[in-house]
Task: inverse folding
């Protein structure tokens, strides 16, 4: 809009009386026009709102989501379930969350047995309200004939909210619901099974659908079970937290010869781990094993094992958790007695050096395990030359986990300042800077580190990222013992981090994390893995 006063805008000009009257008249006319426009806008806005209110519900009626075939809707619903654990009885996640969207989705969800085929049952949480036992029964009934995956966590020790073990009516209801659904069990896990539950399970015949069984706590209950003789059982996990002697495990009524995955572990020091001789006898009963995790005793006397020899043609994973430091001769015994031509993952905690002759035990084992690509080493168990020879013995390594200071207390002769006794992180990094050693290495993790210079770290990382992409290091993590402060820990600048990230390498340098302790609160997530237990303190 043109104005005769446009050239006066932004100046200190003072208009005359005649000009002021002219400006006021102009403003009055424009203000009236603006009011008419505002009224028109209001009328149009009301008209738009009415049209939108007419359109939206009709668009919803013809939306694609309303016309989804039931099989596609079921696939979407199933994709909403947790992938690494069983579903929790919570309105915050599927399937219960899906039932709250609308009546149509609720009806659809209730008609899908597979949607209800997994459930985590924390007994403390269920017993807090009588209605929850009934809800569990409803859940199991909705699964109908679908094969089920269940995990039952009973941290009450058999005492349910002030009542003696197994005397609660709600507990009886829950137990009856579980046993009634047993024919549909595919995967079942018990955490801290009480005697009442064990007695009820003892009456169950071998389960035709059962594929995996896991128990944490007292495994002695299993002697009275028949359900572990089912034709499809492939995986058994026993995590003992009691006086149960793992050396009796081979006498349990289990269909050993058909197992492909077996875990027999003591949960803490002081339990009864498996003797090496008994481990070999147990492996002989399980010729189809693909993975084997076992806790071994470290106080067994050397024995004559020359005549012992078994073949494990399918075994790919052999893991001994670092609960005890094992003598070096265990490595020779294991690789002599057990032939594992397909082994890929090998983790055995070996004690610190007492003599240089022990330094080459891991290297000797490597000559019989040519395909190992995932290995744990304990630097205190290796001398400088032993470390070099050990890494040379595993040319297929893609992942290496090194513990620098695990068993410092395990050997009276161990001296961290003596280069002739054992190695540290600095020696490991120095050796691996030569890319001809472990040329396929993609992941290196160092735990409980004591020493590493900035220059050694930089040289190692630069050497490894210069390799061709298939052989380039992708993950490097080092955790320093908590005695070190931040000033002593080598670090990377933001520019260096950006450079390594661009090369596809993720670097983590930090103190060893400390365990976190949280207050106990009964919830639907108690007993589930920590990464998924995101609402464990939420009250519902």
Result:
């Amino acid at each position: 809009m043109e104005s005769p006063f446009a050239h006066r805008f932004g100046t200190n000009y003072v208009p005359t009386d005649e000009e002021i009257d002219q400006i006021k008249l102009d403003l009055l006319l424009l203000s009236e026009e603006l009011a008419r426009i505002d009224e028109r806008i209001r009328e149009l806005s009301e008209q738009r709102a009415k049209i939108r209110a007419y359109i939206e519900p009709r668009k919803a009626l013809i939306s694609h989501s309303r016309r989804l075939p039931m099989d596609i809707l079921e696939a979407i619903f199933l994709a909403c379930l947790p992938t690494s654990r069983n579903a929790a009885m919570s309105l915050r996640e599927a399937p219960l969350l899906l039932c709250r969207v609308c009546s149509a989705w609720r009806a659809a969800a209730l008609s899908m047995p597979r949607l209800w085929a997994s459930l985590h049952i924390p007994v403390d949480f269920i017993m807090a309200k009588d209605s929850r036992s009934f809800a569990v029964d409803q859940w199991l009934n909705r699964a109908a004939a679908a094969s089920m995956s269940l995990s039952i966590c009973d941290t009450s020790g058999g005492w349910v909210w002030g009542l003696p073990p197994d005397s609660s009516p709600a507990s009886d209801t829950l137990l009856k619901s579980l046993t009634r659904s047993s024919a549909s069990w595919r995967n079942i896990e018990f955490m801290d099974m009480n005697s009442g539950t064990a007695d009820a399970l003892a009456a169950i015949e071998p389960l035709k659908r059962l594929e995996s069984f896991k128990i944490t706590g007292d495994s002695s209950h299993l002697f009275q079970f028949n359900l572990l003789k089912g034709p499809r059982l492939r995986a058994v996990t026993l995590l003992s937290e009691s006086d149960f002697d793992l050396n009796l495990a081979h006498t349990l009524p289990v269909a050993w010869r058909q197992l492909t995955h077996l875990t027999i572990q003591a949960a803490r020091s002081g339990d009864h781990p498996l003797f090496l001789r008994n481990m070999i006898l147990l492996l002989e009963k399980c010729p189809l094993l693909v993975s084997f995790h076992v806790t071994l005793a470290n106080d067994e006397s050397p024995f004559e094992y020359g005549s012992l020899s078994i073949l494990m043609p399918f075994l790919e994973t052999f893991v001994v958790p670092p609960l005890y430091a094992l003598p070096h001769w265990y490595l020779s015994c294991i690789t002599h007695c057990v032939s594992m031509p397909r082994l890929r993952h090998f983790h055995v905690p070996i004690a610190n050096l007492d003599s240089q002759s022990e330094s080459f035990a891991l290297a000797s084992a490597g000559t019989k395990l040519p395909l190992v690509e995932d290995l744990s080493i304990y630097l205190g168990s290796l001398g400088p030359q032993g470390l070099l020879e050990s890494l040379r013995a595993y040319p297929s390594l893609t992942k290496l986990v090194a513990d620098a200071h695990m068993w410092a207390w395990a050997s009276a002769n161990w001296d961290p300042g003596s280069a002739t006794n054992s190695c540290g992180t600095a020696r490991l990094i120095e050796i691996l800077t030569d890319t001809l050693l472990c040329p396929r290495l993609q992941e290196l993790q160092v735990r409980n580190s004591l020493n590493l210079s900035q220059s050694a770290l930089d040289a190692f990382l630069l050497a490894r990222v210069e390799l061709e992409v298939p052989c380039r290091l992708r993950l490097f993590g080092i955790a320093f013992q908590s005695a070190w402060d931040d000033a002593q820990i080598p670090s990377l600048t933001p520019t260096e981090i950006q450079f390594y990230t661009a090369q596809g390498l993720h670097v983590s340098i930090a103190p060893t994390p400390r365990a976190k302790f949280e207050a106990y609160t009964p919830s639907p997530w108690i007993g589930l893995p920590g990464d998924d237990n995101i609402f464990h303190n939420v009250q519902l």
About this structure: The mean pLDDT is 84. Residues 350-519 form a domain with the Leucine-rich repeat, LRR (right-handed beta-alpha superhelix) fold (CATH 3.80.10). The longest helix spans residues 17-61. The first strand starts at residue 118 and ends at 122.
